[in-house]
Every structure is written in structure tokens, then in C-alpha cells.
Amino acid sequence: MEMDSSNQLNCSNGTNSTCERPKDHFGSFYSVYPMEQLITLWVLFVCVIGGNVLVLLATCSARRRKPRMTFFVINLAVADILTGLVNILSNIIWRFTGEFLASDLVCRLVKYFQVVLLYASTYVLVSLSIDRYMAIVHPMKLFKGDRYSCCLIGLAWALAFLFSAPTLFLFHKKQLGNGEMQCWSDWPDDTFWTPYMTLVAFLIYFCPLMIMCVVYFFVVRKIWMKSKMTANNQRDQTGGRTVFLHRGSIPRARVKAVKYSLLIVLAFILCWSPYFIFDILDNYKLLPDTDARDFAAIIIHNLPALNSAINPFIYCFSSPKLCQNFQYVTLLQIKY
User: Fold this and answer.
1) How many angstroms separate the CA atoms of 259 and 254, rounded?
2) Per the count of CB atoms within 10 A, which of 52, 64, 257, 302 is most buried?
3) Residue by residue, what is the 3-state secondary structure of 76-136?
4) Helix (H, G, I), strand (E, B) or coil at 242
């Protein structure tokens, strides 16, 4: 997912619906290496769309029964594809036009769906964490079939649409003091901005992150305890060594799925933590307004989009079967 505006801008680029300050002026973020930024966006766009489309094709082409983990991967891939189309592409278009040329309704809808995708990507990861928790810690309580997973995913998307609703009322098409038409947010007072951004940051990132950390702590703890309690030790009669026949009663497939999901969450943390830390510090005016800050902003604001681009590689690395399907689909695309 991508939120790539500087905090000095008020959503004029059509990409960031949560990081613009309510002021009728533009900062220096886009004036720093503009061509390099545009090229970076195009590369990210191609990688995000191409990689995640191949993931969808690879998962759908598999004839065998798909595990529940695949269901979550499909939802993450869909969210990443929509991120490329709604967030990254709208940013690219704005950099060519310099203004928001669509109607007021389109302005509100674009901002709304941008925020929906931010929430959805995070909450799908939370639902994946809860699913792994139930599979490992409470396997007997797990519902049969895919109903439980569908409920988690449905709740994740429902909360994303609900929490994004204020965006429909905050943003509108507006003519700025310099005569430009932009998709802008108006606030009664600048003092509303910092608490609003803090609340959004906690809802999108910090609260979900805490939930995932707690959930995976109990998951890893359960695996470790089962490994110690049920490992069957036998003495090798010839060497006198201890041989571990198995790690425990938890199926290997479930343990592997936990490692798989942990990699996805780790990539999410590495890509999103710098952005939200930078954003919070900047909103509370704890960062100096220097060229170094603008240069750092260029790198940091591209990291969320990078997360959507590297997810397909994580899927491929963690699942050999998916990787084989991935290669097969890629060869078909090249051939035809």
C-alpha cells in the first residue's frame, strides 16, 4: 500500500488521503528529484501490478485443493493490485497534470478508496494472524471449511470501509489561492489535524501491529511448548545420541504456514514503520524543515508501495508449489 505524499501537501497528488496538512500551499517535497520520483513510481507500479497479477493467476491455476493460507494471500494480492491502480497510478497522473481534473464526486471517491485500501491491507494481515492463532492455539475450536476465514476477511474489509467513511466528508474539489484545482481537505482549525492524524495512524498501523505482536507471541509460545512437551526422544543404540522423532503434535503444515505469515508481517513492519514514525514526528513538528528531511521523505514515502511490490516474492519464496505455478504462468505469458 502506498501513502506517498509529503506532510506539507494537502492530498493534491491524489495519492495520500491521510498525510496532507490543511494549508493552501505546496511544500518542497515534489521539487526534489521530480524525474527520479516519477521513474520510481512507474517501476513500483509495474512491479506491484505485474507481480500480484501473476500471484492471482498462479493461485487460481492450481488444480489441487487450496489451503486457507492461499485465501488470505489472494486477498492481500487483490488489495495490492488495487493499491497500484488507485494509489500509485493516481499519483503518477497527478504528476503529469499538476491539478485534479475530475469532478468533486470523483475526488471524494478516490480519497475514500485510497484510505479503504490502507485499512484493508493492514486488517487482512490481522485476520491472517488470528487465523493462525486459532489453528495453532485452539485447533479444536476452529470451524470446518472456509467459513471462519471468510468471516475474518469479511470483517476486515467491512471495518476498512467503515473507518474510511470520514474521508467522504473531509475531502472535496477546491480552487486554491494560486488558482489550481486540487482535491483538498478543509479543517476548521489547524489544531484538528494532528489529533486526527494520530488517531488514523493508530487505527491503521499501531493498534493492528500490537494485536499481531501479541497474537504471534502466543502462537510461537504454543509451538515452542508443544515442541518441548511432546518431542519423543530415543537413544541411538550405536552412538548414544538423542534422536528427535518429531517436534510435536502440531502438524508441520501449520507451523510452516505460521512462518509464511510471519514473513509477510515482517515485511509489512519494515516497510510501514519508517513511514508512520516519520509522519508522527513531522505532524508534531519534531523534524527540522531541511533538505535532508525532504530527501528522507522521498525514500520513506515510497516504502509502503515497495511493500506491495515485494509481497509476490515472499509468496513465491515461502511456497515452492506457488513458485512453480508462478514460473509456469510467467512462461505462458512470455510465450504468448
Assistant:
1) 9
2) 52
3) HHHHHHHHHHHHHHHHHHHHHHCCCCCCHHHHHHHHHHHHHHHHHHHHHHHHHHHHHHHHH
4) strand
d(CA 94, CA 167): 19
Asked whether the beta carbons of 10 and 178 are under 8 A apart, the reply is no
Distance, CA of 203 to CA of 198 (rounded, Å):
9
Sign for the pseudo-dihedral over CA of 55, 61, 62, 66: positive
Ranked by mean pLDDT, the top range of 1-5, 94-98, 122-126, 192-196 is: 122-126
What confidence tier does 8 reach under pLDDT thresholds 50, 70, 90?
Answer: very low
Grid coordinates representing 174?
Answer: 477546491
Strands 181-185 and 233-235: unpaired
Total count of residues recorded for the chain: 336
Would you say 249 and 227 are in contact if contact means Cβ atoms under 8 Å apart?
Answer: no
> Could you tell me the pTM of the whole model?
0.81
Cell of 49: 501490478
Rounded-to-integer distance, Cα 244 and Cα 282, Å: 53
- Nearest partner of 312 among 108, 7, 55, 65, judged by Cα: 55
The pLDDT mean for the chain works out to 78
Distance of CA 133 to the CA centre of its chain: 20
Number of Cβ atoms within 10 Å of the Cβ of 333 = 12
Sorted by where each begins, the domain ranges of the chain are 29-335
In the CATH scheme, what is the code of domain 29-335? 1.20.1070.10
**Which residue, chain included where needed, has cell 497528488?**
13
Contacts of 209 (CB under 8 A, 6+ apart): 269
Task: Give the C-alpha separation, 117 to 87, whole Å.
Answer: 9
* Grid cell in block for residue 227: 515442541
